[in-house]
Specification:
The complex is a heterodimer of chains A (328) and B (297). Chain A has twelve helices and twelve strands. Chain A has 328 residues and is α/β, with parallel strands linked by helices. Chain A has two domains: 4-121, Rossmann fold (3-Layer(aba) Sandwich); 124-277 and 306-322, Dihydrodipicolinate Reductase, domain 2, CATH 3.30.360. In chain A, α4 links the parallel β4 and β5. In chain A, α5 runs antiparallel to α12. Chain A is globular and about 55 Å long. Chain A starts with a strand and ends in a 6-residue tail after the last helix. Chain B has 297 residues and is α/β, with parallel strands linked by helices. Helix content of chain B is 33%, strand content 24%. Chain B has helices at residues 14-25, 56-69, 87-93, 96-99, 134-137, 160-163, 180-190, 220-230, 239-246, 261-267, 273-287, and strands at 2-8, 35-40, 74-79, 106-110, 116-123, 126-133, 141-145, 149-150, 157-158, 195-203, 209-217, 254-258. In chain B, strands 4-3-2-7-10-11-1-12 form an eight-stranded mixed sheet. Chain B has a two-stranded antiparallel sheet with strand order 5-6. In chain B, strands 8-9 form a two-stranded antiparallel sheet. In chain B, α1 crosses α2 (56-69) and α7 (180-190) packs parallel to α9. Chain B is globular. Chain B starts with a strand and ends in a 10-residue tail after the last helix. In chain B, 49% of the residues are buried. The chains are: A alpha/beta (328), B alpha/beta (297).
Chain lengths: 328, 297
């Protein structure tokens, strides 16, 4: 099987995760990386990456690079994706796709014009536990899912962690609504809305209640009530206010209820797991989504989460912002 | 001998608890003071409900007392930028800006952006030079409002003395970690606070818990020693407390006043053997350069 020569644009939190995972996939070679941080580039060099760029445009000019992972701040997605598409590179774009629906449409348009594949980074669709619910639903084991609760709560940028327990500086763009397109609903809500759409089809209506505990001009918590094409009503609960990470699904079907909790292993278990297998169960979905991306390139397949998915998620988020409710 | 007072907060009435605490201490404010510096504890952007940061409502209660009992016209709530925290966000996220928006005499000061002067001090036989912000140097009264917290092996506990570390305007504070004990004590020598009042309403421990405690003292070493005891630690095994005592910042011996220390100690969420072992394993993982391999570095 041939090896895909990859470039990674942006070596922040998610870019570093992708770089590390690429080394675990046999038919991938990370040929080049681009970042404005010399420290990040030097670290990638130590890991064996040969071509280092402090400007992603230069990376995109490299004809040896056939595909790129874009893990930049959200406001840079459109311009970078445009350049990548025009350079003919296959694109893996981190969520959220863009700051707004218009930018997302432009990204899809430029990818189509240049006939390049565009995959959105939504690792939850590759999570084994979440996949098992999908299988059960498809087999009819749950009956009709009348309602579904999805919760994704963490500390978000208010206590930004890498995998360990040492907080790292949070880049300023995180706190600028103009650059992010919104708050937690864009950041974590896009994950959950994408996942729920995967299970229940398109959102036909959505209402939101937004919280502002941290006194910023963007929401740090959001509860959305959404109706899906399947008829299921979903409660989407996302927040950046807790030091405890919670990601869980509760589906209530006419035949059976299921609940799944996905959480990081405790430190000791995770360390033992890493020592023995070299793999983190928590991050396995990230590895699997990259494998799928590479598979799509080698075997000319359509990505499981496309640009259209990224757009649909942003459309739902946009509608949720529009349909806010207030509580006294 | 230094006095440390212990007061229980009744019905979330911070103001009364602080007043009672200061009465037990025999402390009264000088009515003539004009400029006051208050240093709460802000740690990253952690919410006060986690016990990791001083409750802004606790600060507000102190501000109200100062306004009532003195002729203060300028109250500076101070913090400095740190490796992973910026004051411009911390004051907003943690609720200070909102709470004090109508207080014309209260300013939120980022010490990293303030005028300062270099001051050299000898500590543990070595010379250290730090920037001392003018706002601290010129204050009539400096009040330290720390939290009692466990920290990494070697330092073990952070409270009043460590809170002054946040008055150092230099933002890349992680650079001090290899010599943290000397740095903490040196900074307390160049910026001596007049009064320490601990917000022990919620303490972090190994997991947050409501302790409803206010502790006060004029001696930062004494109040830290008392805090160590509440957290189940022997203060005499904490190196920087011993150093602070040797360097003349205070005494580890103290006279307790008010409520019994032991009742708060019994409630404090203390380190378990498992946590202690995990802490040691964590340190060794880094020393043996295994952290990255284990997914924790």
């Amino acid at each position: 099987m041939r090896t895909v020569k990859l470039g990674i644009i942006g070596l922040g939190y998610i870019g570093k995760i992708h770089l590390r995972h690429c080394f675990k996939i046999p038919n991938v070679k990370v040929l080049a990386v681009a970042d404005v941080s010399t420290k990040a580039l030097n670290s990638a060099k130590k890991d064996g990456v040969k071509k280092l760029f402090n400007n992603y445009s230069d990376l995109l000019k490299d004809s040896e690079v056939e595909a790129v992972i874009i893990g930049l701040p959200t406001h840079l997605h459109l311009k970078c994706a445009e350049e990548a598409a025009e350079a003919g590179k296959t694109i893996f774009l981190e969520k959220p796709m863009a700051r707004n629906v218009d930018e997302a449409k432009e990204i899809i348009s430029v990818a189509q014009r240049n006939s390049v594949k565009l995959m959105m980074g939504y690792p939850m669709r590759f999570n084994e536990q979440f996949g098992s619910i999908k299988e059960q639903m498809e087999k009819g084991l749950l009956g009709d899912v009348e309602n579904a609760h999805a919760t994704f709560i963490s500390s978000g940028p208010f206590f930004h962690r890498a995998e360990g327990y040492t907080p790292v500086p949070v880049p300023d763009w995180w706190f600028n609504k103009e650059l992010t397109g919104g708050g937690v609903l864009v950041d974590m809500g896009s994950h959950i809305i994408n996942l729920m759409r995967w299970y229940f089809g398109e959102i036909t209506d959505i209402r939101s209640y937004l919280g502002y505990r941290f006194n910023m001009d963007f929401e740090d918590s959001a509860m959305c009530l959404a109706k899906f094409g399947s008829g299921t009503v979903g409660l989407i609960n996302v927040g950046w206010f807790s030091q405890q990470y919670s990601l869980k699904l509760d589906f209530f079907g006419s035949a059976k209820n299921v609940n799944i909790k996905h959480s990081p292993s405790n430190q000791l278990a995770a360390a033992v797991q890493m020592l023995i297998t070299g793999k983190s169960k928590f991050f396995q979905a990230y590895v699997d989504e990259l494998r799928h991306f590479i598979d799509c390139i080698i075997n000319d397949l359509s990505p499981a989460s496309s640009g259209k998915d990224g757009l649909k998620d942003l459309e739902a988020i946009s509608l949720a912002y529009k349909n806010q409710i207030s509580l006294k | 001998m230094s006095v440390v007072s212990f007061t229980r907060i009744e019905g979330s009435n911070f103001k009364k608890a602080i007043e009672d605490s200061l009465d037990l201490l025999g402390y009264s404010f000088d009515k003539k003071i004009q400029n006051v510096v208050i240093k709460p504890n802000m740690c990253y952007y952690w919410d006060f409900s986690t016990g990791q940061t001083t409750d802004p409502k606790f600060v507000a209660a102190l501000v109200d007392i100062l306004r009532e009992k003195t002729s203060v016209s300028d109250i500076a709530i101070v913090e400095s930028d740190a490796s992973a925290m910026k004051c411009k966000y911390a004051f907003r996220f943690l609720g200070y800006k909102k709470l004090f928006k109508d207080y014309n005499d209260v300013r939120m000061i980022n010490l990293s952006e303030e005028k300062s002067e270099d001051v050299t001090v000898k500590c543990n036989g070595k010379l250290y030079t730090f920037m001392v912000p003018h706002v601290i140097r010129n204050a009539d009264l400096k009040i330290n409002l720390p939290k009692i917290k466990y920290t990494f092996k070697g330092i073990e506990l952070t409270c009043a003395l460590k809170n002054v570390f946040g008055c150092n305007p230099y933002p890349l504070k992680f650079e001090y970690h290899p010599q943290l004990e000397n740095v903490i004590v040196s900074l307390n020598k160049v910026m001596q606070f007049d009064l320490c009042i601990i917000d022990g309403n919620v303490v972090s421990g190994i997991a947050p818990r409501k302790l409803e405690l206010v502790m006060s003292s004029k001696d930062p070493v004494a109040i830290d020693a008392a805090s160590a005891k509440i957290a189940g630690l022997n203060p005499r095994t904490i190196k920087y407390l011993k150093l602070a005592s040797r360097e003349g910042l205070g005494s580890m011996d103290f006279v307790p006043r008010g409520e019994s220390l032991s009742q708060f100690k019994a409630l404090y969420p203390k380190k378990t053997l498992k946590k202690k072992l995990m802490g040691s394993a964590y340190v060794w993982a880094f020393r043996l350069k295994l952290a990255k391999k284990l997914g924790i570095g």
